[in-house]
Amino acid sequence: MKFLTGAILLTLIPFWSFAQDINYYEHIEPIIKKNCVSCHQTGGIGPFSLSTYDEVKAHGSFIGHVTKTRYMPPWKADPEFVHFKNERILANADIELIQSWIKNGMPAGKKKKRKPANEPSIHQGTKPDLILTMKSPFQIPDTGKEEFRFFSLPTALPQDMYLSGVEFVPGNKRQVHHSRIMTDTTGRIRGIDGMSELDPRVKEFQTIPLVDEFLYGWVPGNEGIHFPSGMGKKLYQATDLVLNIHYSPSSKKEIDQSQIRFFFAKGKTDREVKTLTLREENISNQPFYIPAETVKTFYISYTVESDISLISVLPHMHFIGKTFTAVAAPPEGDAIPIVKIDSWDFNWQSTYVYQNLVKIPAGSVILVQATFDNTSANPANPNHPPKDVTYGWNSIDEMCNLVLYYVDYKEGDEAIKN
Length: 418
Description:
Strand content: 25-35%
Shape: globular
CATH architecture of the largest domain: Sandwich
Helix content: 10-25%
CATH class of the largest domain: Mainly Beta
Low-confidence stretches: 1-17, 117-124
CATH topology of the largest domain: Jelly Rolls
Number of domains: 3
Number of strands: 23
Radius of gyration: 24 Å
Largest sheet: 6 strands, mixed
């Protein structure tokens, strides 16, 4: 047996000593608060809270596994393509700290004075100015089938307002799969609470032009969005919200009473946040159809008519989505990266918020490349055996969307932080 040389001992002793000193409050709590607590807190979208030492210790082994395998925190966008403000990716050093802390018995250490974790609202820790809750609890049918339901939530706003932030809070985190918020000022869509998309009357109100067909969309992984100072989404006086909720299949009766939280812009707001949604009809290689046992790639090409500044981006596909890449090709200069996802996960989608506003010059072409894997080899395929798939709201159907929040460009936007 060979003995360690003095040089090797000197190298190992400092690390060994440091490993013994790793404790929760000094080393682990900052990692958890930065990357986990926004979801894992009371009222958050995570299945359990990680707001205290006891809660983190109780889930210590699980945390060690999911962080070591990089399953958590979930982040799907390629950080080498473009960085985002809300990016959550653990450094190797953070993962090693967590592993060492667990191996040494998860000591607490000395509690430090830190800012308290945010409330369930992610909007800079502030309280919402308006909370709109579904008028009454909705009983989700026990049919074992997906349900798409519409609800109307009057805002009763006495005047036009600008929103600096929007959040959707599912009342039943297990059954609410995603939701879309639209706005109506005609008052003609009221009284649709709980109406199924299969109801013939749905077609009647779908002919009514909406002010905003995509005020906000919530999907698993989304936490809400807020806009830079001086910018906001416009809500007109007496706007009614049209809420479309997708409920996952349930074999027993469940209840949901979801809510929407609004944060009103303070001070002067002279820049309206707008929505650009690229859809299946923008696909150049039509039809949008994926035969069984095929892998198919679709392309979208959209020309921007005037200078705009991007705030955020939300790609959207369903289960057989595989990869998604979007860039902007300006009339001059290099391509502008928008988003790149190499391993699509239907169960974890996000609104990716840019660190700074991103200028897209007039004449730029936004190019999207989206690949779908409708083969037996795709473990995420909901159909066994695979079936031909085309457009539809049901998760066993498919969609191909890119939703962008933006403002009209002003000189110096590139320096504005989100």
